Amino acid sequence: MRVLVTGGAGFIGSHYVRQALTGAYPSLRDAEVVVLDKLTYAGSESNLVPVAAEERLRFVRGDICDGALVGELMAGVDLVVHFAAESHVDRSILGSADFVLTNVLGTQTLLQAAHDAGVGKFVHVSTDEVYGSIESGSWSEDHVLEPNSPYSASKASSDLLARSFHRTYGLPVCVTRCSNNYGPYQFPEKVIPLFVTNLLDGKPVPLYGDGLNVRDWLHVDDHCHGIQLVADRGRPGEIYNIGGGTELTNRELTERLLAAVGAGWEMVEPVEDRKGHDRRYSVDIGKIRTELGYEPRIDFETGLADTVRWYSQNRAWWEPLKGRATLTGR
Ligand SMILES: NC(=O)c1ccc[n+]([C@@H]2O[C@H](COP(=O)([O-])OP(=O)(O)OC[C@H]3O[C@@H](n4cnc5c(N)ncnc54)[C@H](O)[C@@H]3O)[C@@H](O)[C@H]2O)c1
To answer: Are 235 and 195 found together in one domain?
Structure first.
């Protein structure tokens, strides 16, 4: 069994790889895991250090848009788990070309190579942001796609390409659409690690607009567990929402983060709202729960406490990355 994991040096992809290589997923117990990652500012081989000595891991630095390389790596692959993406909404607002290249063209390149090589399963890791914003209730998988940021629009485009490769060529593709993730090894530009690392350094934290935007927070381990259920037993051609974490406004999240590091509200610096800021995300997870027996397993309080502890104990991991984020000027 050979698995190709794209973006396996990023936040979620590296969690999946570490789990896969330490026995968390029985169907992958003896699998060879090939990681294809470009190592953009968001990717780091240091995320794979805990499994670096594992003989079943092969790391390839390269671009998913490189058709020749992707074609070569796809030979003999049974399962593709496709995480690689430009993933930060704020960066997509400043400039969206890289998002279209990687998220759309990169996905098409992988789908074509997977079809040519006859891979057994292709899991395309997408996001709930493709649905847009919802005032009340939750999205089921057949809800219309109304993405509002260049990031979510590029992800929606890649979702539709994935679907088309199933419809047109019968490629066994599944799409997962997950809510906001948190956990260790998340690049310190995303809200939870940004706030935690700022507070650990005694710096203020920037809160967008009125702070009342709502997100559903899911531990990265629950996301990867859901992805593996889909990889093992998801029906080809189907979409599965993953979520069921804890819905919080950004103000509520900020309060919890301040409490976790013993800081007060005076550390909060209100900033102008993000352009096109989605108000609320909420996925209905009835389908993956009923079909595949998925349940989130990590409660938010425990997961957040563990995550804050991880950042406080792993300065050597995030301090150079914060420098890298600033250097880009974005
Ligand atoms: N973070 C979340 O809350 C969340 C929620 C739902 C879905 N997702 C999706 O999950 C996936 C992973 O997200 P993440 O938070 O781990 O992102 P991330 O930014 O931490 O990691 C992305 C990885 O992809 C790599 N990469 C980027 N462009 C590449 C290219 N052209 N070729 C090869 N590798 C490339 C980067 O080097 C990095 O290692 C993305 O597809 C994202 O849309 C993320």
So the answer is: no
Domain of 156 in residue numbering reads as 2-181+219-242
pLDDT in tens, 138-147: 999 999 999 9
Which residues does ligand 1 sit against, CB inside 6 Å?
Answer: 6-7, 9-13, 36-40, 42-43, 63-65, 83-87, 102, 106, 125, 127, 155, 178, 180-181, 187
Report pLDDT digits (tens) over 16-46.
999 999 999 999 999 999 999 999 999 999 9
How far away, in angstroms, is 85 Cα from ligand 1 center?
A: 4
| Mean pLDDT for the stretch of residues 84-109 | 96
Kindly state whether residues 171 and 85 are assigned to the same domain: yes
Provide CB contacts within 8 A for 205, sequence distance 6+.
Answer: 194, 195, 198, 199, 254, 257, 267, 268, 269
Distance (Å) from CA 14 to ligand 1 centroid: 10
Render the burial of 265-279: b for 16+ CB within 10 Å, e for the rest: eebbeeeeeeeeebe
Region 262-269 average pLDDT:
96
Q: Whose CA is nearest to atom 44 of ligand 1?
A: 127
Q: How far is the CA of 86 from the centre of ligand 1 (A)?
A: 6
Nearest atom in ligand 1 to the alpha carbon of residue 178 is 6
How far apart are alpha carbons 221 and 11 in whole angstroms? Answer: 11
Instruction: Quote the number of domains for the chain.
Output: 2
Answering whether pTM is above 0.85, one says yes
